[in-house]
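TA notes. Do not distribute before section.
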Amino acid sequence: MLRKLVVFALVLFAVAHADKGASLLVYKSLLSEEPVEGQELSVVVRIFNVGDSAAYDVSLNDDTWSANFEKGVGLELAKWDKLTVGANVSHVYSVRPIEAGVFETAPATVLYRNTPNGVQQVALRVEGWLRGRR
């Protein structure tokens, strides 16, 4: 419930500040509430364009996992040429926790341009925590 409230508040913030150009909101979530040591953990990164114009050269980099995780299936990197107004995209990959514990997940970094040759900007990002078990 708290997670949904935080996302809703961030969407309202992004919409209120999206008066010119593209404005991207990035939400990273885990498909498992309780990761298990040695088992695949699916990660979903969703990117929403809440601005009033398209975003160009959108790139995702989410390779900030600590040494407590191994790479699983898929890549932590993705790229899209254009994200139109009101559109959203999702990217899924997996990691494997190699030990039990509580870990902070770093936010995914998303860069984009307001015009095809414009200056790169950083999207609004959401951070999280996860607790793994054996």
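Switch to the second chain here.
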Amino acid sequence: SVDHTIAVWDMRSPTDIQLKRVILDGSRSVFAVELDHNYIYGADYGDIKVWDLFTLGLTHTLRGHSGFINCLQSRGDILVGGSDDKTVRIWDVESEGCLRVLQGHT
């Protein structure tokens, strides 16, 4: 969010929801959030930060976009990010490598 945080909630049921922890993302606002079975992803201007879902510790940062990252989607070890730089980047989360850059998106 614009307060530079990601709130992690524990949803035991639709009526039993409790704040588990707030992750601080430094000096930037968070524009997109995604999670899978292992990680929480938070994106801002150019960077995607990756936190361990269980320890909530920052594991690494995926760098490559040159604009605000507006959307994230994960499937298995693959993460896709779409940015104002008019690219979609496909990442291998485990190796921290960019597998492909799709250009020409408007």
